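Tokens for Mannose-6-phosphate isomerase family protein. Go.
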Amino acid sequence: MKLVLLSGGSGKRLWPLSNDTRSKQFLKVLEGRDGQKESMVQRVWSQIEAVGLNESTVIATSKLQRDMITGQVGTDIPLIIEPERRDTFPAIALAASYLHSEEQASEDEIVVVLPVDPYVEDGFFERVKDLESVLRDSKADLALMGVTPTYPSSKYGYIVPEGKVQGDSYFTVDCFTEKPSEEAAVGLINQRALWNCGVFAFRLGYLLQILQEKKLPLQFETLHKEYATLPKISFDYEVVEKASHIVALPYDGYWKDLGTWNTLTEEMATSQIGKGVLTDDSANTHLVNELDIPVTVLGVKDVVVAASPDGILVADKASSPKIKEIIGDWNYPPMYEERLWGWSRVLDYAKYDEETEMVTKRIHISKGKNSTYHYHNLRDEVWTIVRGEGELALDDYIRRVKAGDIIHLPAGKKHGIHALTDLEFIEVQTGKVISNEDSIRLIYDWNDVIKQFQSSRPQVIL
């Protein structure tokens, strides 16, 4: 059995902490087994390891989230990187082509797809294992896993059985009902319907046949190159709704979607994270502050206060799910990003009359980490080292840098930096176009950077 974790999302439901690069699954607000704060993806990965599924798991994600995943769960996990976001059908199709052509998986291999961020007990993943035998026994096109409802919720979709359900074994699916009224949900629960938690299994050959029928390539490299031509559509619409035989397996255990501030705060490790004061008379209120200035919350009830470089949110918890609608049309670049090498924070942005842009960032590179060796075509940069020591690679030499040094990097100049200690610098970018796309990465590993210099010319270290 192969497990595919889907890691995507625009990061808007938990704004302002989440953004395009740091979606909800990467927020370190939960309490781990060791008492340290952990993210949803770290929690899920530790559970997958606990049940022995980690060796057969791949993660499908976007280029923007690659560094976050490797930074939080390690570099040994196979990642399937989407060239661009195109919904769940293209993402799963790309994952299937990877398993087929890169991992040489059999067409009879069972593939289980699930979100990367369910908040569940370990028994959830033991139940996931049962999908393999369910799919083979039933000979169905798809096998889903659903959660036994604990109350008539109008927030979830329901998997409706065909006929009576016996015990906790799998059943044939009649239809799906998306977010019914609470009154309708009561009737669905009486029919033994399940909450749809986005977990499903199929034979690899089943999906490969669908790709062939759509005249899509089965080879990973080819499909990756043609990814922009794939239809922007969900797997539910493109595959699930067209399947002729679907079964569902009940999971009767703890499950919660931590997709909104009101549900996330119910499972947070503490009521306050970051600088500030949360007074004792602030009942059922949470403060999450990532800014360097204190935030004070006095005498309010059922409120979440969240502050980050991307913005500030003050919301009644019951109203917090509306935040995605409110900021849906906003298109601001992320002000804070976590990367494999550390983090960066935007301090200032300006656009001048002659259409020149200026971005000022504070950049932290952790000890032993490094940026890529790269260059920019459209912008100049000036670095001012403010903390620590490192090695700086430029066009024709490598030299030591330390606090107080200033480095000028005109467009086209190849450069990279390696932190000998925790290293911080202020980066001022100027140009007519400033974009994350304007980074031509040449070398990723620092040892390879050194080898490149040694092979091409004498290495100079000052």
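The chain has three domains: 2-256, 270-318, 341-456.
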